[in-house]
Amino acid sequence: MNERGLLVDCLRRLNRMGVTYYLTGSMASNYWGIPRTTHDLDFVVQLPMSAVPRIIQEFSGDFYIEEAAVRAAYQPPHQFNAIDTRSALKVDFWLPKPEPFDREMLRRRVQATLFGEPAWISTAEDVILHKLVWNRISPSDRQLGDAAGIVAVQADALDKKYLRQWAQELKLFNELERLLSGEIKPKNT
User: Fold this and answer.
1) Biggest CA-to-CA distance, the chain
2) pLDDT digit string, tens, across residues 90-119
3) What is the pTM for the complete model shown?
């Protein structure tokens, strides 16, 4: 099982469950920008506590997933994972936080088709901003390179007003301007 196969498998399971979700992280930046290899998937899922047994059931068998870890995700850091036993690849699931930007990312998610499967994915602008947030938490050329790759590919299609508004709110304005000006360049893959 490679990353592509794992993504399709997870999309099928999430779609079957009928939960509100979106793909984010490196796979989302691959969709909007310059692809690179990645060894995990990141999903944001709205998961009511009553749906915990359902996600455990849906991902059991081919995944190592702990019910206690899923239940613990209702507290910070609002995250749990499932390990694909066929490949040892990891799937991170994040519950949306109540912060305005997290709510906006969920509201703005868009539908796409990824490798033949219907999928919800975060917008290019939100992936850029989220990559900048993660770079502030844990500085990484990879986060900046992913964001720069989206800027390079999407260019004039980006909603720069939206980007600047949220960059101001998130205190990322200087980093965003460095990206938009081309000062931060995408990494060669």
Assistant:
1) 48
2) 999 999 988 999 999 999 999 999 999 999
3) 0.93
Residue 160: closest CA among 186, 122, 124, 135: 124
Q: Which residue has the tokens 């190592």?
A: 64
Q: How far apart are CA 150 and CA 45, in angstroms?
A: 23
Q: Could you count the other beta carbons within 10 Å of the beta carbon of residue 1?
A: 14
CA distance 125 to 105: 9
8 A C-beta contact, residue 24 and residue 42: yes
Round to whole Å and give the CA distance between 51 and 17: 9
CB within 8 Å of 147: residues ≥ 6 apart: 29, 33, 127, 128, 131, 132, 135, 179, 184
